[in-house]
Inverse folding.
């Protein structure tokens, strides 16, 4: 069915019969949709969007958290493996994260390049002092978020899993609020 747009009306033409010049054409007229027209201010609902600058800053924070999430997960796991009395080997990291060894190799190259880790031939991965500090910071954030979720009544398994994702996206102000809440409401957790 061809659609013909004309002014403020649109016609939908349908062929009746064989389509030759002797057949009739039937038109049905509909009001054209109103594109690029604005509702009067009195009838327009209030915007639910935050101010542009606030919106942009929120998305920027999330993008930055996503960029650092991989680094933080690897550094935290490497520190945990070393603290557990073992070397942090690629095979152990891959099995703990549930990824392939080539994925771990690529991530470790990034950690070395950015100064978080050191790789030694035929040995495991070791953290630089900056990597050790990052691991401590990430572990502290993780524990704060997990304790907060437990204080809210979330079961231990869910709190552990959820804290693993939330720890990367929570701001310092929110962490401080979590800690203040825990100090008042649940000092035993």
């Amino acid at each position: 069915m061809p659609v013909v747009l004309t002014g403020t009306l649109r016609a939908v033409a349908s062929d009746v019969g064989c389509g030759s010049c002797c057949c009739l054409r039937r038109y049905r007229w509909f009001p054209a949709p109103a594109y690029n027209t604005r509702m009067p201010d009195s009838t327009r609902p209030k915007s639910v969007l935050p101010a542009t600058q606030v919106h942009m800053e929120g998305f920027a924070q999330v993008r930055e958290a996503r960029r650092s999430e991989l680094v933080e997960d690897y550094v935290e796991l490497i520190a945990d493996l070393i603290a557990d009395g073992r070397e942090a080997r690629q095979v152990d990291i891959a099995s703990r994260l549930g990824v392939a060894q080539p994925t771990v190799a690529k991530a470790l190259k990034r950690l070395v390049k950015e100064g978080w880790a050191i790789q030694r031939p035929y040995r495991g991965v070791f953290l630089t002092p900056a990597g050790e500090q990052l691991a401590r910071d990430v572990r502290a954030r993780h524990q704060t978020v997990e304790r907060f979720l437990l204080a809210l009544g979330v079961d231990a398994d869910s709190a552990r899993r959820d804290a693993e994702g939330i720890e990367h996206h929570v701001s310092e102000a929110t962490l401080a609020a979590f800690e203040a809440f825990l100090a008042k409401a649940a000092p035993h957790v």
Notes: The chain has two domains: 1-32, 64-185. The first strand starts at residue 3 and ends at 6. Residues 18 and 24 are 9 Å apart (CA to CA).
